[in-house]
Amino acid sequence: MIWNQFALQILNGLGVAAILVIATSGLAIIFGVAGVINMAHGTFIMVGAYTAAVVNKLGGDMFMAMPLAFVVVALLGLAVERGVIRWIYDRPLETLLATWGVAIILEVAARLIFGPLGLKVDWPDLLDGNIKLFARPPHYPYYRVFHIVLAAAIMGLTFYLLYKTNFGLKVRAVRRNRAISGCMGVDTAKIDMLIFMYGSGLAGVAGAVLAPIKAATFDMGFTYAVSSYMVIVLGGVGNLLGIPVGAFLIGEGETLLAFRYNTVIGQLLVFVAIVIAIRVFPRGIFGYHERR
Amino acid sequence: MLRVSGIDTYYGTSHILHEVSIEVDAGEMVSVLGRNGAGKTTLLRSITGERLPRLGRIEFDGKTISKLASHLRTRRGISYVPQGRQIISDLTVSENLELALLGVGKSRRIPDVVYEYFPALRSLTGRKGGVLSGGQQQQLAIARALVQEPRLLLMDEPTEGLQPSVVAEIQEIIKRIGSEHNCAILLVEQRLDVVRDVARRFAILDTGHIVATGPIGELSDDVVRKHLQV
Ligand SMILES: Nc1ncnc2c1ncn2[C@@H]1O[C@H](COP(=O)(O)OP(=O)(O)O)[C@@H](O)[C@H]1O
Ligand SMILES: [Mg+2]
């Protein structure tokens, strides 16, 4: 019995880690390739969530909202990159301030358009129900399985893009040495732009998928953004593995400690553990490169 | 084919190149000499577009390219072998070559010419660029430019830091590229023997000014003593 409980907590931790991967991957790829910390990442997730809420109102479900949220937020990312970021790529503090400004504008806009209360998003019928892992409840919910599959799919797709396509070869080159890649004929500005769109689109998908957990609210981005920054700080973006490894450690840590003590203590201990980990891995477990 | 007319290039507020002019005709080999810090690399970077000159004009095939982005200059036929090779260290040898091919809109298939020029690279294709020896990296850097079939090749100190036997190899390669590919070469090189062997004309940069130019025969000991010796 106690072992069943423990196994379930491990699996729940995996589900939390999956949510962290979903929420973080867009932020991480933009930081890893273009060297920009997008302070508007959380609000990009929020825009994806409202996209899902609107789709839901119109009679569609979350699965339909996912591709739409990708497109909507990718276009939002395109506008932000072309309109603001591209002029200040090599000034990190200004990109922080500018994307923070974008975040404030989006939050105010969402509040004006959709009001201060959240919009509920229904779970798709397909994700109702549980897998009966053990003879007796509690069982493992389908939506957690879905999160784990989606997290794996996002990592797989990103791996495929980076390592199996012409685009990915250019991305890896630009990440290492922008100037020389340009001299090799690579349109580095276009690579930055496309990566910004891809990362933003992933934030949109995250929003669409996370909306049903609570609701789409104008301020929902903040929590996810904070966890995303923690995942990146712990895992690093020098390697694609940084995100799943960071997310796994945080997700399992929080879940197991919450099981042993309570949620607040769990989050506190994980936070302390991350602070200690930064002393050992100042650039995260897998490191990162400065933009150059 | 290439005409650089009176360019001034800066790094921030430091004024590096002062009204520098130089020309390279189609298929011609021109060498730029100068002490360390004279501005040779800055001149090449101005031509590749890595640094934009504040004044002056750069023309290629009669069209102004001074404000053009780097990658567009490459696609017009200017390839670059940078100082210190600048191989992308965590890409493999193949990937470095494929990147150069993709950059000019070719397919990823590595042409045989690479292995005709550099047989040693054939067994290294799966290695990461960063683990190659200096000589191997230099071969890769030249191969990377060669697969782009440029009409103008910019080379920045391709023999720097190499053993004498490897220097001789690179020297032969440079001559071969010039003759077999009808490719103009603007060669920055510190070794006078190499320059005298391969170049048809020379230009000397001294603290950002062109102080002497002429056919290679006029590269006298006097000029060398005045502008090149430290
Ligand atoms: N990135 C840079 N930032 C500031 N100054 C630079 C930079 N690169 C080169 N310089 C300066 O420009 C001058 C010319 O450098 P460079 O063109 O590399 O000379 P060379 O190739 O002839 O040795 C030197 O004084 C050097 O210190
Ligand atoms: Mg130099």
Output the keywords.
heterodimer, A: 292 residues, mainly alpha, two-stranded antiparallel ribbon, 11 helices, 2 strands, 72% helix, globular, B: 230 residues, alpha/beta, Rossmann fold, 6-stranded mixed β-sheet, 4-stranded antiparallel β-sheet, 8 helices, binds adenosine-5'-diphosphate, binds magnesium ion
What's the quick description here?
Chain A is an all-alpha fold and 292 residues long. Chain A is 72% helix and 1% strand.
Shape verdict of chain B: globular
Structural class by SSE content of chain B: alpha/beta
* Uncertain regions spanning at least 5 consecutive residues of chain A: none
| SS field, number of helical segments of chain A | 11
Strand order of the largest sheet of chain A: 1-2
Rg of chain A, alpha carbons: 19 Å
Strand content of chain A: under 5%
Tell me how many strands of chain B there are. Answer: 10
Topology, number of strands of chain A: 2
**Tally of alpha and pi helices of chain B:** 8
Bound molecules: adenosine-5'-diphosphate, magnesium ion
Estimated helix fraction of chain B: 25-40%
Instruction: Determine and state the CATH class of chain B.
Output: Alpha Beta
Strand residue content of chain B: 25-35%
Order of helices and strands of chain B: EEEHEEHEHHHEHEHEEH
Shape of chain A: globular
Mean pLDDT score of chain A: 92
**Major interchain interface with per-chain residue totals:** A-B, 18 and 26 residues
Q: According to CATH, what is the topology of chain B? A: Rossmann fold
What does this structure look like?
- The complex is a heterodimer of chains A (about 290) and B (about 230).
- Chain A has one domain (about 1-215).
- Chain A is built from 11 helices and 2 strands, in the order ααααββααααααα.
- Chain A has helices at about 1-35, 40-55, 60-85, 90-115, 140-165, 165-175, 180-185, 190-210, 220-235, 240-260, 265-280; strands at about 130, 140.
- Chain A has a two-stranded antiparallel ribbon.
- In chain A, helix 6 (about 165-175) crosses helix 8 (about 190-210).
- Chain B is of the alpha/beta class and about 230 residues long.
- Chain B has one domain: P-loop containing nucleotide triphosphate hydrolases (Rossmann fold, 3-Layer(aba) Sandwich).
- Chain B has helices spanning about 40-50, 70-75, 95-105, 115, 135-145, 165-180, 190-200, 220-225, and strands at about 1-10, 15-25, 30-35, 55-60, 65, 80, 150-155, 185-190, 200-205, 210-215.
- In chain B, the strands form 2 sheets. Chain B has a 6-stranded mixed sheet, with helices on both faces. In chain B, strands 2-1-4-5 form a 4-stranded antiparallel sheet, with helices on one face.
- In chain B, a hairpin with a 2-residue loop joins strand 9 and strand 10 (about 210-215).
- In chain B, helix 3 (about 95-105) packs parallel to helix 5 (about 135-145).
- The two termini of chain B are about 35 Å apart.
- The mean pLDDT of chain B is about 95.
- At the A-B interface, helix 6 and helix 7 of A face helix 2 and helix 3 of B.
- The complex binds adenosine-5'-diphosphate and magnesium ion (MG).
- Magnesium ion (MG) binds near residues 40, 41, 83 and 156 of chain B.
